[in-house]
Amino acid sequence: MRVTMVGTGYVGLVSGACFADFGHTVTCVDRDAGKIAALLAGRMPIYEPGLDALVATNVTQGRLAFTTDLAAAVAEAEAVFIAVGTPSRRGDGFADLSFVFAAAREIAAALTGDTVVVTKSTVPVGTGDEVERIIRDVNPRVRVDVASNPEFLREGAAIEDFKRPDRIVIGVEGTRAEALMREVYRPLYLNQAPILVTSRRTAELTKYAANAFLATKITFINEIADLCEQVGADVQQVARGIGLDNRIGSKFLHAGPGYGGSCFPKDTLALVKTAQDAGTPVRLVETVVAVNDQRKRAMARKVIQACGGTVRGKRIAVLGLTFKPNTDDMRDAPALSIITGLQDAGAAVVAYDPEGMEQARPLLDGVSYASDAYACAEGADALVIVTEWNAFRALDLARLGRIMAARVLIDLRNVYRPEEVARYGFAYASVGRPAASPAG
Ligand code: UDX
User: Fold this and answer.
1) Which of 50, 171, 332, 397 is a Cys-bridge partner for 200, taking CB atoms 3.0 to 4.6 Å apart?
2) At CB < 8 A and 24+ separation, what contacts does 21-25 make?
3) What is the spatial distance between Cα 40 and Cα 183, in angstroms, rounded to a whole number?
4) Angle at which helices 283-306 and 200-231 pack, to 10 degrees?
5) Where is the UDP-glucose/GDP-mannose dehydrogenase C-terminal domain (predicted)?
């Protein structure tokens, strides 16, 4: 099949490369000429494990192309995917659909024959209706179906998630679009991924409901973690104890500094707005949003407390800046609020992240950056693990103890065991587990 992907961000680029790998002929379009030039030269605009190799193979084998020429790419496609950004709109938090509608207008003008236009971007309920209206307005002669096909991939595991999804959701308003979409995903039949065919509005809402549910699950265990700290219980054992119940499930029960990233914060907010507009507020999700926002700031207070109540004039080393490991994405990363909170309290912050420092620089003032974890910890009064990169899972604690000015470790991802850290003479604070004092 001939597939065109409009937008080469996370979702567009990964989906385009994976569709090509399925055997389809894919053209990825972006109006950012610099991005397309870089992709043509084999440079990826994002850090995602395995993506460069997947792109290179499919380009070499002639199934994947990159261009800024939307009209040409759309004219010859059987399916055109819209995978442009839908950021939160400043002011009201509703999803900003201007990129989606602009893409729809451009696509409409370029359509020449029967085509299915598919929104893959996460879009509020009813966006497909509007896209359809725009296309019919601009180009009434062509026969077009508009489908919704939300993407559930996680950053850092994007290729694996795309190729082995738990399910594929397709929202259509007719059998022609359904048949075409089944054809697009036919290579996944081998993996027996269930395909759920629904109405377009149902598909759009399914994506928001999934993300809101997962955000709720994380926020729930985070609040239980706070309670654990107060009553002397261990949140990891509680999570295991509840997670083994099949009705609950063990995933997304890892307590931490609050969720971040390009999806959960924006999508929960957009769902809240949609529901308010519809006159049926989702109060549970409203609370999740508020609790998670407060949590990120509260993490700075947790660090301050572990430092004996003040960080003024102290040097605080931060390990991990990105919102999670294996990405260079800094969007809504908890590290941003935590570092700002520490600086506001008078600390000097030095940070290290394996991939995220370049993205972090424009977002943070006054932070110095180290070349590795030990350079970061050198002379520090406390070390804070904010993101659980593998490189931070087996730090040489004896060495850290020697090079730091004080042995204080705040582990916001529960990477270490309290007894283990205490053996090296560290005061240790983590999330939802009993605090440990240095052995001795
Ligand atoms: C998420 C969804 O998983 C994906 O299905 C959707 O399509 C897009 O949003 P992503 O943002 O890439 O994917 O990251 P994810 O791995 O889900 O993590 C989101 C945030 O939640 C991170 O900040 C992570 O650290 C946090 N998290 C996740 C926890 O704090 N605890 C957990 O148990 C799981």
Assistant:
1) 171
2) 21/54, 21/57, 21/58, 21/63, 21/163, 22/186, 22/187, 22/188, 23/63, 23/187, 24/63, 24/184, 25/1, 25/63
3) 28
4) 40
5) 317-418
Residue with CA nearest ligand 1 atom 3:
154
User: Which residue do the tokens 């700002």 mark?
Assistant: 340
Q: Is the pLDDT of residue 143 over 80?
A: yes
Residue 439 has pLDDT above 70, yes or no: no
ipTM: 0.94
Task: For 69-105, write each residue's pLDDT tens digit.
Answer: 999 999 999 999 999 999 888 878 888 999 999 999 9
Under the banding of pLDDT at 50, 70 and 90, the label for residue 436 is: low
Residue 418 alpha carbon to ligand 1 centre in Å = 25
Set 18, 28, 228, 263: catalytic member: 263
287 Cα–ligand 1 center, Å: 18
- Give domain 199-440's CATH number out of 2.60.40.1730, 3.80.30.20, 3.40.50.720, 3.60.10.10: 3.40.50.720
Distance, CA of 63 to CA of 416 (rounded, Å): 45
The atom number, within ligand 1, closest to the CA of 207 reads 7
Answer whether 154's CB lies under 8 Å from 263's CB: no
Distance CA 367, CA 347 (A): 10
Is residue 82 a contact partner of residue 97, using CB atoms and an 8 Å limit?
no
Summarised one tens digit per residue, pLDDT across range 145-178 is 999 999 999 999 999 999 999 999 999 998 999 9
The SS3 assignment for 207 reads helix
Q: Is 30 annotated as a binding residue?
A: yes
Q: DSSP letters along 283-334, please?
A: HHHHHHHHHHHHHHHHHHHHHHHHTTS--TT-EEEEE--SSSSS----TT-H
Rounded distance between C-alpha atoms, residue 276 and residue 268, angstroms = 12
Retrieve residue 357's tokens.
């420092």
d(CA 375, CA 71): 51
pTM for the full model?
0.95
The tokens describing 67, both together, are 């261009």
Listed in order, the ranges of the chain carrying CATH 3.40.50.720 are 2-198, 199-440
Three-class secondary structure of residue 433 per DSSP:
coil
Query: Would you give the DSSP letter of residue 438?
Result: P
CATH architecture assigned to 2-198: 3-Layer(aba) Sandwich (3.40)
Q: Is the CB of 413 under 6 A from ligand 1?
A: no
Q: How many residues make up the chain in this entry? A: 440
Question: Does the annotation count 307 as an active-site position?
Answer: no
